[in-house]
Design a protein that fits this description.
mainly beta, about 220 residues, about 40% strand
Length: about 220
């Protein structure tokens, strides 16, 4: 993408607040039916129950060890955007993990090229929860791999038992000026973020605004 981590950090420090305010609009959510007001957009059997504030939540339950998932294919503009941010709310009850630590209640994303080949390693999940937990908000930010044609968003009880509820699923796609794009819009590689700012702070990404930044280890952004 041609941007160093330092450049992304400086750029988002400058324009992150404006972009965040803009991204609060539902018109910037690339996930279809992320509030589960209907069954469209998702592959799999969408069952809803009352969730946060009485609004619908997708409900998954496993009484035996099996992989149960809702997923959604999100086609991305070309050239691919530099970054994405994915967030949502998750509640769990008596989730007992499978043989592997990652076999739990999960919100995930995977990137693919136009031939359906996975790009890179498995990305870190947005959420990966076991046990019983009340509603909590989870978010993660990603640098989009070069050659990405689409991303697959997944909500799962992966080879585990228990119950999980999902709501408020949001996918934000960022343009090259680090502003969120409305769904279906084109990217603009000629647009660049502002990069010049006088500062005494030597930390990279001090406000955790940068999608996909690896400047912090074990940081919970959100």
């Amino acid at each position: 993408m041609g941007y160093s981590k330092a450049l992304w950090g400086i750029a988002f420090a400058l324009c992150g607040a404006a972009a965040a305010a803009l991204a609060d609009s539902p018109n910037f959510n690339w996930a279809l039916n992320g509030d589960f007001e209907g069954a469209s957009g998702w592959t799999g059997s969408v069952v809803t129950q009352p969730g946060r504030g009485g609004k619908p939540a997708a409900y998954l339950e496993n009484t035996r060890v099996v992989w149960t998932e809702l997923n959604q294919k999100i086609s991305l503009p070309q050239p691919p955007p530099p970054a994405m941010e994915i967030s949502g709310y998750l509640k769990t009850e008596n989730v007992v993990k499978g043989a592997n630590d990652w076999e739990a209640a999960r919100i995930t994303v995977v990137f693919y090229d136009d031939k359906g080949n996975r790009l890179g390693d498995w990305p870190a999940p947005i959420a990966e929860i076991q046990g019983t937990h009340d509603w909590d908000f989870y978010t993660n930010q990603y640098s989009v791999p070069k050659g990405t044609a689409y991303a697959t968003l997944g909500l799962a009880l992966g080879n585990c038992t228990g119950k999980a509820w999902f709501s408020g699923i949001r996918v934000l796609v960022y343009d090259y000026d680090l502003k969120p794009l409305p769904p279906g819009a084109a990217t603009h590689p000629d647009r660049k973020p502002v990069t010049a700012q006088k500062t005494d702070n030597w930390l990279l990404n001090p406000g955790f605004e940068t999608p996909g930044a690896g400047d912090w280890s074990q940081a919970h952004i959100g």
